[in-house]
Amino acid sequence: LERFVVTTTVLDLAAGTSVLGSEDIPGCHPATCRIGLLGLGNVGSAFARLAREASSSLASRGFTPVVATALVRSVTRERSAQLSAQITDDHETFFAEPVDVIVEALGGVEPAYTLVRRALDRGIPVVTANKSLIAAHGDELARLARRRGTALRYEAACIAGVPFLGTFERRSLVARASGVTAILNGTSNYILTTMTRGGSFEAALADAQRLGYAEPDPSMDVSGADAAEKLTILIRLFGRLLVDPAAIPLDGLASVEADDIAAAAAFDGAIRPVSRAAWDGTAIRAHVGPAFLTGTHALARVAGVTNGVVIDAERGAQCYIGPGAGPDVTAATLLDDVSEIVTERRVRTPPSDAVSAATAVTRPDSAWFLRLTGTARPSDIADLLGSYGIWCTRLERRGDRVYALTCHAGQARIHTALDAVQAATGAAAAAFPALAEEAQS
Ligand SMILES: NC(=O)c1ccc[n+]([C@@H]2O[C@H](COP(=O)([O-])OP(=O)(O)OC[C@H]3O[C@@H](n4cnc5c(N)ncnc54)[C@H](OP(=O)(O)O)[C@@H]3O)[C@@H](O)[C@H]2O)c1
What we know:
Number of strands: 18
Helix content: 25-40%
Distance between the termini: 53 Å
Largest sheet: 10 strands, mixed
Shape: elongated
Number of helices: 15
Radius of gyration: 24 Å
Bound molecules: NADP nicotinamide-adenine-dinucleotide phosphate
């Protein structure tokens, strides 16, 4: 009950301050928004710090955020975050504290799922940065939030620094789309961008780890699994389809060589870690992995840790580019979500759009950027590929490799053709999807 009293105070203030901020009204004080914080790691600590630092600017919106309680794994660990809040490792103690909003920054599916469910079940609004949680249980949690008349926001879970998910969630007509193409993992993009300077994948990864962009265990990033989780969030939002991230075909980054990056540049393009999906009914064509983008593609110049997404919306493609992650930008987006919740006139529950389970997930067809290692003559390679109906639009020898750009072909056909080339000439091949501006097909 106390929770709703506080929220009502905030809403009354917000309603009365459409022109004036609360600090402009004599005798009007911002209401305290008590926050329960799940996790005090990189993101949780940055959030606690920002909540303190931003309190005077948020007062003009009618509220002051105060972290009232925080849940961690180990209470004995030393913390840099200055918190007057209770810090506990006990779920019951955490939930005993009355709060207006819960901010989840634990990571992983459990115990985040159990704790978020419990919060929503009690009608407490939840804001999360956890893509694994939303990819695995987003639809179910949204339905629970709707039943309980409360909010669930996860803007920080996918391209944390670019607030586009909430905008589209509120605007279901503009959000109707037939596909998305995106760079969703800053670590992978940093690695491929760094390799343009000529270094190996291993050296670029070590560089990313030294700068703190990559985790000590970078496997989720470089395998594409992290991007696949974010892609499933986009597929649910824009395609209204549920898909298990594990069903999305992945290619890791380790197959990319420095010479491939240089060849891509010579072919007027760039190799980027691309996540893409297109849907038709309940069938999805999706893939996460390194891909060749022609230089005119909207994402070809998205470099370093920056992320980007092109949405093939029914009413025209839309492109968003910006910071993907980092504790400070993630904390800012989490706090903006909190701010929206407490200043809304009416609680905005998740939308009730019908969502269906995807019936099939297959790799999309595309053109291809090929690397063939060996001494075979380019004309022989072109003839052999042509006998499988694969026509090269560009073919060039560079040192001991031949690089080629081909016409559109399914994955099975390209691999059959490349196996035949290898059998006839000994040339070992690697194939990357090649995407032009109209990437979905
Ligand atoms: N880092 C980024 O730039 C970024 C960007 C966007 C989204 N995110 C998302 O934000 C979330 C948090 O990331 P992070 O980098 O802050 O992770 P992190 O540094 O590992 O912090 C995790 C926090 O959760 C606590 N925790 C973990 N398991 C727990 C358990 N079983 N019970 C209680 N507490 C537990 C940890 O407690 P201890 O401190 O006691 O270990 C720690 O405080 C993840 O979902 C991540 O995907 C991160």
